[in-house]
Amino acid sequence: MNEQVKQTILDTIEQYRTIIISRHIRPDGDAVGSTMGLRHVLRDTYPEKNIYLVDDDFADYLAFCGGEDTLPEEAYKGALLIVIDTGTRKRISNHNYALAEKIIKIDHHIEADPYGDINWVEDFRSSACEMIADFCMTFRGKLTLSPTAATYIYMGMVTDSGRFRFEGVTGETMRLAGSMLECGVDYETLFSNLYAEDLASLRLKSYVYDNLRITEHGFAYIYMDTAVQEKFGLTFEQACSVVGELSDIRGSLIWAAFIDNAAENQIRVRLRSRFLGINDLAKQYHGGGHNMAAGATVYSVEEMERLIADADVLLGEYKSTHKGWL
Ligand code: AMP
C-alpha cells in the first residue's frame, strides 16, 4: 500500500511548479537532514521548478547545514507543501503552511493528526530521513541523489537513531544507510561538525553528572533552571541537549531533562527510556512522541514533581515484573 502512496507523492511533485518543504519546530538532525536532503534532490532533479525550504525556527548546533529560504505569502498560492518529520500541525515550523494548495505529510511518528492531503506515515522507521532515503532509492532512476543530498539524509539517519543504536533500527535502515554512503557521504566532515566538543560543553557535562538526581527506582533526571542556562551561556536548545548525557546509567531505564523555558512560563521535558515505553507518560503531561523517546511540557515545579513521581512508579512496576534489565 505504501508503494502506492510513494507513487502518488512522486506524481504530485511532478505536477507542481512551486514546492515548499517544511519541518517541525525546534528542528533536530532528522528534521534538518530530511528537508535539506529533499530540497537538494528536488532541485537537482527538477531545475525548472521552484523548490524552497521554509522554517520559522533554527537550531544553532546545526548551523553548519546552511540556511533556508524566505517566502512571501503570495508564493504559497497554488504551491505544494511537503512537511517532513512533523506529527501534528501544531508542530509545523511554518506559520503560513495552511496557505499552500496541497499538503503532503511524510512522517515516522505515531499518527495523531493526518493533516496532509496525502499522508505517508511509517512509525516503524527509525527516522524521517530513512523514509526520504527509501523514497530516493524507490525512484532512483528518476531522482538525482548527489553526495550533498545523501550526506544530509545520512545525517538524519545517524542522529535520530543514536548512531544506529535505538529501537527501530532494522536491516532495511542499514541497507538504506549503505546506499547513502555509496553516494559519497562525507562522513568525516559530517561527524566532526556533529560531535566534536569544545571545552565549555565538557564542563557542562561535568555539571550534569554532579547535579543529576535518581529516584528510588532509578528514574534519572536533571532540572536546568534559567540561572544554570545563563551560567553556562547556553541557548535553550543547547540546554535541552543534556538529556543525552543521562542515557547510560546502569539501572536507570527512564531518564529526562527538565529545561526551564522562562520566556514561555513552562518547562520542557525530554524523556527517554530503554525496555519500557514512556509515550503514555508523556501524553499525560501535554506531550507525546515515540515509545522510547518522547517529549512533554509541564507548567510548574509541582507538575514536574508529579511527573517524576509517576515515572518512578512506572519504573518500579516494570522492574518488579520483568527480569533481564540492566
Ligand atoms: P525531543 O525530546 O524533542 O527530541 O522529542 C522526542 C520525540 O517526541 C520526538 O519525536 C518529538 O517529535 C516528540 N515530541 C516532543 N515533544 C512533543 C510534544 N509536546 N508533543 C508531541 N510529541 C512530542
Keywords:
326 residues, alpha/beta, inorganic pyrophosphatase (n-terminal core), Diaminopimelate Epimerase, Chain A, domain 1, 2 domains, six-stranded mixed sheet, five-stranded parallel sheet, 11 strands, binds adenosine monophosphate
Give the structure's gist in a few sentences:
The protein has 326 residues and is α/β, with parallel strands linked by helices. The chain has helices at 2-15, 29-45, 128-138, 147-160, 171-182, 187-195, 199-211, 226-231, 236-240, 279-284, 301-321; strands spanning 18-22, 50-53, 80-84, 102-107, 118-121, 213-214, 219-224, 254-261, 266-273, 288-289, 293-298. It folds into two domains: 2-194, inorganic pyrophosphatase (n-terminal core), CATH 3.90.1640.10; 199-321, Roll (Diaminopimelate Epimerase, Chain A, domain 1), CATH 3.10.310.
Can you walk through the features of this model?
The chain is of the alpha/beta class. It folds into two domains: 2-194, Alpha-Beta Complex (inorganic pyrophosphatase (n-terminal core)); 199-321, Diaminopimelate Epimerase, Chain A, domain 1 (Roll), CATH 3.10.310. The protein has helices at 2-15, 29-45, 128-138, 147-160, 171-182, 187-195, 199-211, 226-231, 236-240, 279-284, 301-321; strands at 18-22, 50-53, 80-84, 102-107, 118-121, 213-214, 219-224, 254-261, 266-273, 288-289, 293-298. The longest helix has 21 residues, at 301-321. The chain starts with a helix and ends in a 5-residue tail after the last helix. Bound molecules: adenosine monophosphate.
